[in-house]
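Notes from hallway chat w/ T.B., transcribed later so I don't forget. T.B. wanted the structure written out for a chain they're using in a teaching module, and asked if we could keep both sequence and structure tokens in one place. Agreed to drop them here.
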Amino acid sequence: MMESASRSVQTVARSSASPGTVRPGGRTERTRRAVAAAALALLRRGETDLSPATVAVEAGVGLSTVYRRWPTRVDLLREAFTLHTRTLRVPDTGDFESDIHALARRLARFFSGPTEVAMSVAMAAHTDPEFNAWQIEYWEQLAGELARPVENAIARGELADDVDAALLIEMLIGPMVTRTAIVKQRLGRKFASDLADLVIRSAAKASAAE
């Protein structure tokens, strides 16, 4: 299966960038990336209670800079989450089944990683209304990007026009989050393949119902 033709989830990442990111590759952007990478490193070690002080030390960035731009744990988690999801690449091979299998493998690796598990724990424990609202908005945008293989298949005539792309992607993501964040299991290749087959059959059945 072709996995080289793909696009990273840049649209969502750009829309969630912190204020002050003026020039890609400039000092402000380098600082933002350093802070996000530091927050992710701390999360990988299980340190979910982020603070400007700990992140500043990890990033090698001045404490006053971090306090000025990321004064709260919510701000730091938001920045870390934005950088983290940039690693996801949405396949576009020109074939629906190939795309879904490729996407399932990539999502399985993504959700099985220590960073994603720590992020899930941190977000599940968060009660800040502002962060919760941002989290919902962000995942809605991300889900829209991940749904592109389904939308492309509809455009090519492989699937019926009224197939619910968002629902199919939720069918793919839901079991992965359950197994990693709740059951604490890694996602193997067979699980990803079986899940992809289930989504493909569901899409085919929905199209046949037309």
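Follow-up for T.B.: The beta strands are 6-8, 89-91. Might be a good example for the class.
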